[in-house]
Specification:
The chain has helices at about 15-35, 65-75, 130-145, 190-205; strands at about 5-10, 40-45, 65, 85-90, 95-100, 100-105, 105-110, 115-120, 155-160, 165. The protein has about 200 residues and is an alpha/beta fold. The protein is globular.
Length: about 200
């Protein structure tokens, strides 16, 4: 059974244009793996879960720590909704703490927990005309991580400081350091990634 509920939240500073494309990417990915759309809820921006708690998630001014923000999201789970997940669309720069260093990232996700994307910090060489497709791809990529497509025990993968990614170059779950201009939006995930997502759903039954 798929997680019971997923809430989408928009940080102040994210325009609706970028937000809507991020949600489109999220929904595309969820549709492909069969996540029930009636379990998705968009949370009004004034109700963002980190309101009044943001200082606890900041490692330094202007940066949000992905792990701490994920922990804050997990604290919102209740016995009535133990599988609650958040998809956060941010304007604040995201860092992921690796060892003794903060690693900048365009997005971050924790399998079966929460995901976040930054839609204001964009790759330097991104053409303005590619912005919608880029945001959709980024959202789908992080959703794939959220759905367990790249677990630690996966063999067909590439591991780096940015985490575990698919080894298939045409898959949206490949190492996200480039823009996949020719990505097949209808079939963005390779069969191996889809198999792992379905495996996660079976385990939850």
């Amino acid at each position: 059974m798929a997680p019971r509920r997923l809430k989408i939240a928009r940080e102040v500073g994210v325009n609706l244009f970028s937000f809507n494309y991020a949600v489109l990417g999220l929904r595309n990915a969820l549709d492909i793996v069969g996540f029930p759309t009636h379990n998705i809820e968009v949370v009004p921006s004034q109700h963002l879960i980190w309101k009044n708690k943001v200082t606890g998630c900041l490692r330094r001014a202007g940066l949000v720590d992905a792990t701490m923000l994920n922990d804050l999201c997990l604290s919102r789970r209740t016995p009535e909704c133990p599988d609650l997940m958040y998809f956060l669309v941010l304007s604040t720069e995201i860092v992921y703490h690796v060892g003794d260093e903060d690693s900048f990232c365009y997005g971050a996700a924790f399998a079966e927990q929460n995901a976040m994307v930054n839609v204001t910090q964009l790759p330097e060489k991104l053409h303005p005309g590619d912005l919608p497709t880029y945001i959709i791809q980024l959202a789908m990529h992080e959703t794939g991580h959220l759905l367990g497509m790249t677990p630690p025990d996966r063999v067909e993968c590439v591991e780096s400081s940015c985490g575990i990614h698919c080894a298939s170059k045409g898959c949206v779950m490949s190492n996200y350091v480039r823009f996949l201009r020719n990505l097949d939006i209808v079939r963005p995930f390779c069969e191996t990634c889809l198999r792992y997502a379905r495996k996660m759903k079976r385990v939850q039954k």
